[in-house]
Amino acid sequence: MPRSQPALDTSPKVSDEIKKTTCYMCACRCGIDVHLRDGKVRYIEGNRDHPVNKGVLCGKGSAGIMQHYSPARLHAPLKRVGPRGSGEFEEISWEEALQLATSWLEPIRKSNPKKLAFFTGRDQSQSLTGLWAMQFGTPNFAAHGGFCSVNMAAGGLYTFGGAFWEFGDPDWDLTKYFMIFGVAEDHASNPIKIGIGKLKSRGAKVVSVNPIRTGYNAVADEWVGIRPGTDGLFVGALIHELFRTQSVDLDYLLRYTNAAWLVIDAPGAEDHGLFARGEDSEQLVYCTASKAVAGCKNTDAKPALTGVRTLPDGRSGRPVFELLAERFLTDTYAPEAVAEQTGISADQIKRIAAELAHVAFKEEIVIDQPWTDWAGRRQEKMIGRPISMHAMRGISAHSNGFHTCRMIHILQILLGSIDCPGGFRYKPPYPKQTPPNLLPHGAAGEIKPEMPLGGPHLGFPHGPEHLLLDDNGGPNRLDKGFSWDAPMSAHGLMHMVINNAAAKDPYGIDVLFLYMANMAWNSSMNVPGTIEALTATDENGDYVIPKIIYSDAYYSETVPFADLILPDTTYLERYDCISLLDRPISEPELVADAIRHPVVKPDRDVRGFQEVLIDLGHRLKFPAFTNDDGSPKFPGGYPDYMVNHQRKPGIGPLAGWRGTDGTATCTGEPNPNQLDHYLENGSWFGLHLDPEHAYFRHANRGYLDWGIQKGIRASADPTVFQLYSEPLQKFRLAAEGFGDRQPPDSHRDRIKSYFDPLPFWYPPFEETMVDEARFPLHALSQRPMHMYHSWGSQNAWLRQITAANRLYVHHSVGATIGVEDDDWVWLSSHQGRVKCQVRLMDGVNPDTVWTWNAIGKRRGAWGLDEDAPESKEGFLLNHLISELLPAGGGGYRYSNSDPITGQAAWFDLRVGIEKADNTGTTAPYFESLGDASQAPSPERLAYGKQWKEPAE
Amino acid sequence: MHPAYSVILFTTASGAGYGLLFWMTITYAFGMLQVSPWYLLVILIVALLLITAGLLSSAAHLGHPERAHRAFSQWRSSWLSREGVAAVATYVPSGLLGLCWLFGIESTLTVWLSLLAALGAVVTVYCTGMIYASLRTIRQWDQPTVAPIYLMLGAATGALLFAVLLALASAASIWTSLLALAMLGLTAALKRQYWQKIDEDPDPVTMEDVTGLGRFGAVKPLDPPHTRPNFVMREMGYEVGRKHAEKLRRLVWLCLFGAPLVLALLALLSGPVLAAIFYLTACLSAAVGVVTERWLFFAEAEHVSMRYYKAA
Amino acid sequence: MTTLPEKTEKKLGLVIDLDICVGCHACATSCKEWNTGGYSAPLSDHDPYGADPSGAWLNRIHSYEAGGRTVHFPRSCLHCEEPDCVTVCPTGASYKREEDGIVLVNPDTCIGCKLCSWACPYGAREYDYDDGVMKKCTLCVDRIYNDHIPEEDRVPACVRACPTGARAFGDLGDPESAVSKSVAERDGYGLFEEFGYKPVNRYLPPREPLNLPVAEEPEAAETPPTTDTTQLGKLFAWIDRSLS
Ligand SMILES: Nc1nc2c(c(=O)[nH]1)N[C@H]1C(S)=C(S)[C@@H](COP(=O)(O)OP(=O)(O)OC[C@H]3O[C@@H](n4cnc5c(=O)[nH]c(N)nc54)[C@H](O)[C@@H]3O)O[C@H]1N2
Ligand SMILES: Nc1nc2c(c(=O)[nH]1)N[C@H]1C(S)=C(S)[C@@H](COP(=O)(O)OP(=O)(O)OC[C@H]3O[C@@H](n4cnc5c(=O)[nH]c(N)nc54)[C@H](O)[C@@H]3O)O[C@H]1N2
Ligand code: SF4
Ligand code: SF4
Ligand code: SF4
Ligand code: SF4
Ligand code: SF4
Ligand SMILES: [Mo]
Predict the structure, then answer these.
(1) Mean pLDDT lowest among A250-264, A414-428, B235-249, C132-146
(2) I need a surface site. Which of A181, A240, A942, B196 has the fewest CB within 10 A?
(3) Which helix (H) or strand (E) holds C142?
(4) pLDDT at C227 over 80
(5) What angle is formed at CA C231 by the lines to CA C229 and CA C237, rounded to 5 degrees?
């Protein structure tokens, strides 16, 4: 009998309408098409036209529905009524909430603005939050960068005016050899995936340097399972090999770097180690043709890269290159010498160096695209060395990360592979100057009642003169940023704020104002200590941190510790501005920014935090938010601000469709219809670069001038790569006793040893201070690709993938302590111990254990049941990581950070492991947070039932 | 495989029911069953009650019982469908048979009806057995002895019931006990063979096979797709400890075969009243035994899809 | 219709490149998101915020370690050519489409007996406890022919989402199709072919490591004569020579 198939409607209706906005399941900021049906989100897919994700969507973004409808969403402003942590809140109106906040903030601003600390997480409105803090006049502002990856940013910006992070990309289409250091996921989440897909399909080689072989590192053609913290030795050895085999791009070095600049060689002199300078302080080189020194900008000179040269003042100077070669050709960096420490064989190191040399110099790419260099010399072709590199927190989250990061950049530069075809490419507005002419503000003199700060809080000191010190030379910032503790902390030290405030070191504060950072849990080092700090009381029983205001969108572990909660919307319910003034979404050949806009209406009494800030700014009478007649400057709230605020005349948060007629780009009058244009274009704007400006932008005359015109570049001078970094030498000289700004004696040695103008490797601090025998292993965390920090666990779909984390250990370690999969172990550090379950694996450096980051949750948070695996089995390494190093000589405890940038050294953690009895709960097992103010979470979900096609 | 109690109950109860139906109808047809018509009816009702109870409980196990009728449509390919059809078909002759007896009709018609009912009983139980025996995904079921065991267990438990009922009407005779003894003995032999078979050939399928990654070397799972069991793991991933299984097998030997055999023998040698008691206890013991046997049948079954989750 | 079609006009299926898959789960969550409101609506979740969260997923990602590699391994229905999951179905709810070979469950006639899931050696069928019916990968039959969806997007949700491009969709019956070609090129394989269901989906195995040529040692390249034979000396001599 004939088969009969059911009639099937293969063209069912999908949605009523599609709204294009920007994803915020993570900070990658992909374009999304949100399909709406009956006012609910039916489906979210990637926006094909969008520069960031080009249509694809990651595991998080594709679970957006469950984030948006999460039961953990906050519903209304909350005022704490029980003790901190009890979760006893009273719902209040927005008017009451804003009045309360104003009543706390106004007196501080009138008396001593320092008493406010305003710190934000991975938000994307730092240009607004920063402005707000400047207007308030407090020095205490920063975002998460300090505990995130400031080493990456600083290391790059001080060296070549760009950085990894999302400030640049490998030339995915042309690169032939890609090295990826210490990356599990990164901010450029989809772009890296798209890129790796391209490389592998093209047959380009991918080399992963990572103690752990998962994710990107699993698909790499070669996995280098390095021992944590030793990349400086590995990269140093590669540089050693390039020098030994004479495989460096001399022409590139002469054109674009300070390799030929003469360094004053006068030990004991106050300017020893600084660059020799001539007229209007132009750095000098030695010209082998004229046999005399010449200005470094003199294009006729034939600069020498070697030799001790006599300076006009009779003293001698030596070219940077010579010093650099001396540093790395020593045996310290010989492959054989580093093999044991790094766990990488000398042969492998030599082979990788030889492969790099081959690809760079035997497989160069030539593009027939004439361009003009900084000095006006026309170049017929663009010559590329198709080697690209990327690195992230595996490098930066160590106390030696700044130097290691610089070393990687120097490796790229020696190979001539920065911003060339096939190499690493800047994303506008990068490159900046080295270092950027952006100085930090907030020194003692700058802080006065009711006086806005003179400039941005965060910047790049060029020397001790730019530190932010109080009248006694101590830190003027609560986090000790830009003090002798962390002189070049370009992003601040958010990880120190709470504990410093509670210890009143350097001083106490009145109000702690936090936004989008789960500081009572996964973003703090030493969680128990942080919770203590948040709840610490003085002799009268008052909280040492008197007031805490917090804006979150969900019931996170931090919410119960705040006194006033300003509930935010979800990412589908608000305006956001992804601005060139902040962290734009540019591509190498595209200047781009984007917005978010409400695609669904909030069903709760919540407000976008930016709206709230602007409102508060007006209530507090900030000049930037208030007209002279006292009326609000931006009555239309955040969208009004996005369109009409001007940083400088013609420059505002959004670069697209400026000018009253909407034809101007980047600079121009505010345009009342600007947002409509954004909406028409899928919520983003992009301006393509002229092909002539595609590469060598650090020294591309056309680009430099165009950049100034477009307001994305401060100086028409080229960006000169700083193999040798003078600012570091200036700090060192101060430590050696020169100049009027010198570190306290307690800090001299530290500054002397670590502020080396040439990069070098030193062992991460923790391992030098703790007992190696007791803590023989390194402990790391990795981001799961499908979870964003703590947000993922409230997502009904994502938590089905990972509801609890295991500690991954190498089989050999498992064998020694006699454990098998799922057995319980105690993991201990000098800070404390954690009980968790193991999983054995091969693809991990034998000296390393690791786990997925931020899966562990505290009971009572995130709308999860008391017995959720996240809290019963899930654990954090944060309990083991101290925010302070063990007391060193002199008893002073430095923060557990990079000595130069203050970057939190998460991955310096050393641990010991021992078998535990197999009982089913993790330790420490914090008592449950109260969540009485939250509605109970559903027992079952059948999302989409409403759209089931009726049976025919 | 996850041992679902509804299915265990269904297969054992209806198995015994069909067994009873078979023995009564066949003996009736050949005129070997000398009881009053109304007692014939009693036996028939007991059989049909067991069968119906079984069928209902298995229907209850469905996600959509109200759609159960759809299950009759695919007899061409599906053993489950065939079972449904056979089960319903069997009601017709046995129902009519009941009516006849109710009105005291006994003729060639009732003989033919009872033969049909007997046939229906056999076919239905065979289909049930084949539902499992035809699943190549489960080595422990993909065995030639599986369907025969289903048939024999039905026959054996049915025979015991039959003996009890006859004994109660003190109509038991030597051959009823011999029948029970024979059936139990045969089934025991088959079951022994089955267990030997599944014990001796170890699961040949490995994680290397199912993933095709063997080419690179030994394959070990790193992360499962979900940290908590999903449907497949819950349904197919059920595992019974070897020790526990052995205990239960011993229980089966004792309750399903050992005890009943002995008791049936004793019944054979004792007077009517005692015999009835012996048969009754034999029957109860066998009930415990067969439920255990069926539970093990599932619990010991390993589904090949589990190889994606757990190394062999 | 439980009987299998003699042959199907097309053999639509997925090709998954294990050499590129980074295990990001995008294909799994995008699948869940599309299908919970689509043909299989809803894909219910049990205890979604509790101790034992689980739900109906039509696609899921394993990861394995195999001889010095870590391999991420997405799995969904393989739309086999001769699968018992269809023939064992008592109701005919489980069927294989004549036109394209997609194996589907008709949610309106399925009685939820689970037998088909027992018959699938790949564990690719998902019983929805709440909905009481069997669910499975539909190959996004409600996308690939959908006139409401732009031409270029008429591919399965998982393929559309996959950030690395590790998933491809097409007619594996047509040797000229892009998917068939990539399978031929990379000798793609079907899972557990020995079992005999003739799976249609194909997997492209991880590639062998690349061996690149390396630059030769400077000794080989003629090095300039120099008095200073330290490595530095040689380097500097080479530089002076190159720059003069
Ligand atoms: N899915 C997802 N994406 C995210 C986030 C998230 O939570 N989830 N978070 C976002 C944020 S805030 C950030 S900062 C970025 C961070 O993105 P990543 O830089 O990828 O951060 P991690 O996940 O910490 O990965 C650190 C990697 O470095 C390796 N590593 C650790 N120590 C060393 C070492 O000494 N040497 C080398 N070579 N490697 C080492 C670890 O094994 C790990 O693979 O990701 C962003 N993107
Ligand atoms: N052990 C270990 N610890 C780490 C790291 C590590 O690698 N290992 N990584 C560190 C790094 S790099 C970072 S960046 C931090 C990240 O740590 P956090 O910055 O704390 O990131 P989340 O955990 O995502 O917390 C962000 C908070 O913002 C809230 N939130 C989410 N969406 C919104 C919104 O739309 N509006 C508002 N107002 N709030 C919202 C969330 O509910 C959550 O409470 O973790 C750090 N901690
Ligand atoms: S990477 Fe994923 S989560 Fe992050 S923005 Fe893009 S789509 Fe959203
Ligand atoms: S989306 Fe692509 S890369 Fe991610 S897990 Fe699925 S197949 Fe692999
Ligand atoms: S994979 Fe399983 S469900 Fe899919 S067709 Fe094959 S046997 Fe049937
Ligand atoms: S569960 Fe549904 S589809 Fe599967 S066999 Fe039973 S009726 Fe058929
Ligand atoms: S084809 Fe569709 S249903 Fe099948 S796995 Fe992909 S997304 Fe899911
Ligand atoms: Mo971060």
Answers:
(1) B235-249
(2) B196
(3) helix C141-144
(4) no
(5) 70
Our answer on whether the CB atom of A523 is closer than 6 Å to any ligand 2 atom is yes
The closest of B51, B138, B135 to B91, measured between CA atoms, is B51
What is the whole-number distance in angstroms between the Cα of residue A150 and the centre of ligand 4? 30
Strand pairing class (A78-80; A564-565): antiparallel
Say if CB A734 and CB A465 are below 8 A apart.
no
Contact of A899 with A540, CB cutoff 8 Å: no
Residues facing A777 on adjacent strands = A911
Q: Is the peptide bond before A869 cis (omega within 30 degrees of 0)?
A: no
Sheet holding C167-171, edge to edge: C167-171, C12-17, C202-204
- Residues whose CB is less than 8 angstroms from the CB of residue A522 and which lie 6 or more positions away in sequence, other chains included: A557, A789, A790, A853, A854, A856, A876, A878
Question: How, if at all, do strands A590-596 and A684-688 pair?
Answer: antiparallel
The amino acid that residue A619 corresponds to is: R
Residues present in chain A in total: 952
The partner residues of A884 in beta bridges, in order of sequence, read: A895
Per DSSP, which regions of C77-124 are E strands? 94-96, 103-105
Sign of CA dihedral A639, A644, A647, A652: positive
Predicted local distance difference test score (pLDDT) of residue A920? 82
Q: Is the overall model pTM greater than 0.95, yes or no?
A: yes
> Quick one: which atom of ligand 4 is closest to the CA of C165?
2
- Measured CA to CA, the distance from residue A512 to residue A534 in angstroms comes to 10
Digit-coded pLDDT (tens) for B79-106: 999 999 999 999 999 999 999 999 989 8
C15 Cβ below 6 A of ligand 7: no
| A89 token code pair | 């809140």
- CA A111/CA A648 separation, integer angstroms: 29
- Tell me, what's the pLDDT at A2? 47
Is any Cβ of chain B less than 8 angstroms from the Cβ of C48?
Answer: no
Assess contact for A487 and A473: CB atoms under 8 A.
no
C180 to chain A, closest Cα gap in Å: 16
The verdict on B227 touching A (C-beta cutoff 8 Å) is yes
Q: Smallest Cβ distance to C215: which of A42, A46, A247?
A: A247
Higher pLDDT, A835 or C227: A835
Q: Which of A607, A449, A613, A549 is nearest to A101 (CA)?
A: A549
Residues 161 to 180 of C: which have CB under 8 A from any A CB?
A: 161-166
Q: Return the pLDDT at C212.
A: 87
Q: What does the alpha-carbon distance between residue A600 and residue A598 come to, in Å, rounded to a whole number? A: 5
Of A21, A24, A26, the one to substitute when testing ligand 3's pocket (max ligand atoms within 8 A of C-beta) is A26
C-alpha closest to that of A27 among A854, A575, A585: A585
**Which of B223, B226, B230 has the highest number of chain A CBs within 10 A, making it the mutation to test binding with A?**
B223
CA nearest to A458, candidates A134, A113, A187: A134
Map tokens 């917005």 to a residue: A595
pLDDT recorded at residue A951: 56
Going from the first residue of chain A to its last (952 residues), give the mean pLDDT of each consecutive group of 10, the final group possibly shorter: 77 96 96 97 98 98 98 98 97 98 98 97 88 98 92 97 93 98 96 97 96 98 98 98 97 97 97 96 96 96 96 97 97 98 98 98 97 96 97 98 98 98 97 96 96 97 98 96 97 95 97 97 96 97 98 98 98 97 94 98 97 98 97 97 96 97 97 98 98 98 97 94 98 97 95 98 96 97 97 97 98 97 97 97 98 98 98 98 86 91 97 93 96 95 89 52
Measure the CA–CA gap between B11 and B23, rounded to whole angstroms: 18
Q: Which of left, alpha, beta for C75 (phi over 0: left; psi -120 to 50: alpha)?
A: beta
- CB of C106 within 8 Å of any CB in chain A? yes
Find the CB nearest B228 among A214, A803, A839: A803
The answer to whether the CB atoms of B228 and C54 lie below 8 A apart is yes
